[in-house]
## 1
Amino acid sequence: MKIQIINGPNLNLLGKREPDIYGNTSFAGYLDRLRKHYPDCDLQYFQSNHEGELIDKIHEVGFAFDGIVLNAGAYTHTSIAILDAIKAVTTPVIEVHISNVHAREDFRHKSVIAPACKGAVIGLGLASYEMAIRYFYEHSNPQK
Ligand code: DQA
């Protein structure tokens, strides 16, 4: 099965950025571990700091892949354009966040993309991504 992970703005700095909130691990190292853990899963990764590039990637994979795991970063709280992109495609999208956005500033409590997503995994650190991948994996391989 094919799963696309998409990270939005500032998530290229994972491991360096506010480590008290986002941890000390770079996404590259975590992705290696995920790929070893799910060897029969084609896990693709894309990161961009640009809203339009995130939308282009959702369009590109959104009719062919089995799942999209999306951390839209701060665009989560503002981007009607990403909401519309998720609505436009057929591939289900799971929203993920590393931090518990509900325990942070008020402006992080609202996700404008949530209504178009299958569900959300929030606040489990990098394990949020694995939980979302596991959902797609188990639901396309019901015997696992
Ligand atoms: C985040 C939470 C957002 O509020 C923030 O803007 C991010 C990261 C998270 O993964 O916890 O960039 O999506």
Note: Residues 2-140 form a domain with the Rossmann fold fold (CATH 3.40.50.9100).
## 2
Amino acid sequence: MPSAVAHGMLAGLSEIADIGRDRRAGGYSRHLWEPAEHELRAWFAERAARLGLDVEVDRNGNTWAWWGAPGPDAVVIGSHLDSVPGGGAYDGPLGVVSALEAVARLQAAGFVPGRPCAVLVFAEEEGSRFGVACLGSRLLSGAIDADKARSLTDRAGITFAEAAVTAGIDPAHLGRDQESLDRIGLFLELHVEQGRGLIDLGEPLAVASSILAHGRWRMSFTGQGNHAGATLMSDRSDPMVAAARAIVDVQEAALASPGSRATVGRIEALPGGTNVIPSAVHAWLDARAETDDQVHAVVADISARVQNQHAGCSATVVEESWTSTVTFDPDLAARLALALGGIPALPTGAGHDAGVLAATVPTAMLFVRNPTGISHSPEEFATLDDCLAGVEALDTLLRELL
Ligand code: HGY
Ligand code: MN
Ligand code: MN
């Protein structure tokens, strides 16, 4: 079962296969405006230029490559190039590479679009550097307040506004970009599937029907920083113990609400020394469920459970980002599914820029089977045949839409 990365038929995936490898975590760590991500942007610009596309970066850091004159009523296809820490090769890049490949095929066949077309690469889809997922599409569509975005910080305390300057983006101009939005007639994102839906159906492709409601919260536990050797067990106010109990509560709250998912994937102890009882511990909660109300009920349950976890410690739970349940336009999804021979429709538990844009412009998604069913991990996978089926599907849809 050759992968598209190893095979090189989808040449783009093999060209970027060495960019941003994470030797410690495994997989890839490609974070916004860090060297690997800059390298990926340069690769994209060079690739797009080779196809004769005009590349421009919008005022929120998203990169557009135009085939012909920019909008209005353009068909825009794309995804993202950034990754989670230690992520796989396909989440994001598959959609970008497939979009470029579909344009290249249409050009080679002498196809002349009757409508503007662009390949779009969104910035900071994973929120791995500044904490809020889909930041580029949220800014573009006005789904996040520009002041809130400007003040987000990375792990080193650098603000999004400061980092934007280093990337040549003027932070004063961040925010809803009506001119760019007006150019989009339809946005289509191809993405590797991140669960087992297509494995279970025995199908290579699906259209997306919906995305779970989801959000991120920071749970902070404070206690008394102190000496690991000189402090008796009975004298401690150790926030690490409070955090550990809270993490078990997170699991129990989600199990008590069938269908919901809650995860603590990141913790930080301050100051973080082996021989130091921490003064504070932050633990980030990701919670998801079918409805907004269900997520909020799970988080309310967690918030109640984590209070008074450990003597002398206090806890707070603060929302950092929120995305309501997304239902993709069913008529558009049905039309695309029919054009592709009646492929199935699937819901997903993963967030996407397409989900953010769906509130503003006609939007659809295509999923490509992932035979491991694993994602946000180096084990994420797609076979060469399924990737090629995805490119052919884009080719078919672009011929119909353009
Ligand atoms: O976190 C997510 O669901 C996505 O992959 N950004
Ligand atoms: Mn992802
Ligand atoms: Mn993704």
Note: Residues 125-126, 133, 350-351 surround (2S)-amino(hydroxy)ethanoic acid (ligand 1) (CB under 6 Å).
